[in-house]
Protein: Multidrug resistance protein
Organism: Corynebacterium efficiens
Amino acid sequence: MQHFHKVLVNTLIFNVVTGFLAYSLLFWVYLETRNVALAGILNAGYMGALAVTSIFFGSIVDHNRKKTVMMASSCMTLVLFALAGVVWVLWMDSATISLDSPALWVFSILILIGSIVEHLRNIALSTVVTLLVPEDRRDKANGLVGVVHGMSFLVTSMMAGMAIGFFGMETTLWVCLVLTLLAVLHLITVEIPEPEIVTQHADATVPIAPAPSADGEVFTPNPVPSDLHTVSRGLDIRGSLAIIRGVPGLLALILFTCFNNLVGGVYTALMDPYGLELFSPQVWGVMLGLTGLGFIVGGMIIARVGLGSNPVRTLLLVNVGIAIIGIVFTIREWGWLFVAGIFVFMLITPAAEATEQTILQRVVPFRQQGRVFGLAMAVEMGANPLSAVIVAVVAQAYLIPWMDGPGADTALGVLLGDGTARGMALMFMLSGVITLIVVLLAFASRPYRQLSRYYASSSQDIAGQTAQ
């Protein structure tokens, strides 16, 4: 656990630095050019690249020692940020920055690629939890991972704008470059003990005892190719899907997560516009930062009490809560209600993320986890921006005009009351209702029972085996 805590601290430093620089870049580009399209292109390109590379990164994690992966990722990030510094000194002219400025594009791409490469560490971290943390403590360890992500979000979202406003891009770049160098030096001192048997792609998995149901159905793994470690080390989608299909109910879990992130596009698209209808930009920025504390508190709660004996059930219960929040937190244009709803949403989100991590760490063989985590992250990151674009278009073109016109006199109009953002409120409510229906159906589904029983009957205590 001491090794795990050191890795976690190092990950926090890297996540804060890279996220801080990426946010600062996007803020700076918009303030310098006042070009919404350019900022949107950079943001969409960043999210899209994260989704695509996650699968490739997962294969890299599976085929290399975790310390080697983290060190290579960190050094590449440092080199790319340093090259961005060279571009700034030798080529960048802030007085002539525009959409067709080659220097601006090269500078921005170097920083964004450096931030994307750092994401390789996050996939490796998920497998490090399996490697270093005893099985009965993984849910709490994943809660600590949630705390790290929450602290990263809080720092980057609140400080990036202040840094650009008070110090400018140049100072921000040099500070981040120095912090990245210090984080690399710290990582050199961090040890990740990885047994040789894991490096040689042995399963390192305790045999799974079949768990028959009352009607005699046995929940055992589906056949999976035994030579998956020899599959292409690049974009190994086939190998990832084969692994997922080998675990009863796991594909349904991935699809459920995909659905959640499609619905999450409602929050991505409308949370800031709705907040800006209720608050001034300055106050909304503070409110958003304060609600981010919910993510930290939620992660600390999971780290303290865990996720219960059946994380699959916990995941669905958390989504019941998310659905209820979506239904009620914009039912009136009350600032306190909106902020409270976001805080509770942030508070329970770490439980959803920790449950998925804990399930995968137990039911997927360690030597194959990188590919599965990579594919799951690709689905998550790809679904959200896609749905955000659709939601934004639908809300702007249909729901907002309808609620401002004929919809105001309907039952929905009476339910949601008066205000300037009733169309967005209707979208939040609809997403909550749809989520609630899907979660209730999931509770009654066969994949839910399969995965719950398979999880209960499986074991993968690599840390415990290593200690013995």
In short: The chain has one domain: 2-196+238-467. DSSP finds 18 helices and no strands in the chain. The domain at 2-196+238-467 is CATH 1.20.1250.20 (Growth Hormone; Chain: A;).
